[in-house]
UniProtKB/TrEMBL annotation, chain A:
The keyword Cell inner membrane does not apply. It is found in: Membrane. This is Succinate dehydrogenase, cytochrome b556 subunit. The chain crosses the membrane at residues 21-42, 54-75, 96-116. Its main location: membrane. InterPro entries: SdhC_prok, SQR/QFR_C/D, Succ_DH_cytb556, SuccDH_FuR_B_TM-su. Its cofactor is heme. Belongs to the cytochrome b560 family.
From TrEMBL, chain B:
InterPro entries: SQR/QFR_C/D, SuccDH_FuR_B_TM-su. The keyword Membrane applies. It comes from Streptomyces cavernicola. The chain crosses the membrane at residues 49-72, 92-110, 131-151. Keywords: Heme, Iron, Membrane, Metal-binding, Transmembrane, Transmembrane helix. This is Succinate dehydrogenase hydrophobic membrane anchor subunit. It is found in: Membrane.
């Protein structure tokens, strides 16, 4: 660790870094998402055409990444609330982070088929 | 300090008396006529509180949204103009999307404001990045609100 830095490393710092990175990614997607949805005011064809790109295998993979970012940001956000408002929150912040990661992993496995299933069928047939 | 007090006394006679009072030294934090009435306010505290409260609501709204759009009824494949028309026929889902739009945009904008304040060190850079952020945020919130309220299923 360089001298004089405020960064402490370990679970606390890295969850904070990941929270920022996922937050920015989600926010930028939100701009795009409001714009693509606004196409329903142009014409049904314009909207359906853009939504068709969301159904391609490559974008499905990006959607899986988006789900990963949102789930981490949501679960870790609840952990941040617990650290700030629960009297024992700070003491259990590491255990809570590993709980967040475990729940995140389970949900990500659960999202595999619903989010990527159609893309896999498209790429590999049947 | 102790040197001063001893200097104030000479031969057990106090230097100051009724006719010759010691100068008054005000407490450092004392409010005077020159102190501005309005201090800095609690904006940052309310911002901090808003992030936590909106965050909790957004967990429900956004995860529900993802479940409906990406998981149930064939996932993303079912989404199209007809699907949107079906959902926005209900005031419940209109309200859901409206609240989600406003909370998510304000939550994200405040988050990015914090990040700009943290990493943009030059005053000018910080100012213009935040102006860009606020412009994009106001535009997107208004556009999204307009779309939800003026949606017309019979546009064609």
């Amino acid at each position: 660790m360089p001298a004089g830095t405020l960064y402490r490393g370990r679970e606390g710092m890295w969850s904070w870094v990941a929270h920022r990175v996922t937050g920015v990614l989600i926010f930028f997607f939100l701009f795009v998402h409001v714009l693509d949805t606004a196409l329903v005011r142009v014409s049904p064809e314009a909207y359906d055409e853009v939504v068709a790109t969301y159904k391609t295998p490559l974008v499905a993979l990006l959607e899986y990444g988006l789900v990963a970012a949102i789930l981490f940001h949501a679960l870790n956000g609840l952990r941040v609330v617990a650290v700030d408002f629960w009297s024992k929150g700070a003491r259990y912040q590491k255990q809570m982070l590993w709980t967040v990661m475990a729940v995140w992993f389970v949900l990500m496995v659960g999202a595999l088929y619903p989010v990527l299933g159609h893309a896999v069928r498209e790429v590999f047939g049947s | 300090m102790s040197a001063d007090t001893t200097a104030a006394k000479t031969d057990d006679v106090t230097l100051y008396d009724v006719d010759n009072p010691a100068p008054v030294i005000e407490a450092p934090r004392k409010r005077t006529k020159k102190t501005p009435k309005a201090t800095r306010g609690n904006f940052e505290m309310y911002g901090w509180l808003f992030m936590r409260l909106s965050g909790i609501v957004l967990v429900v709204l956004v995860l529900g949204h993802l479940l409906i759009q990406l998981v149930l009824d064939g996932g993303v494949s079912k989404i199209g103009f007809a699907f949107v028309a079906g959902r926005w026929a209900s005031p419940w889902w209109q309200a859901w999307d409206l609240v989600m739009l406003w909370l998510a945009m304000l939550h994200g904008a405040n988050g990015l404001r914090t990040i700009i304040n943290d990493y943009a060190e030059r005053d000018n850079t910080r100012f213009w990045l935040k102006m860009l952020l606020y412009t994009a945020t106001v535009f997107t919130v208004l556009l999204g609100t307009l779309v939800i309220f003026t949606f017309d299923p019979n546009i064609r």
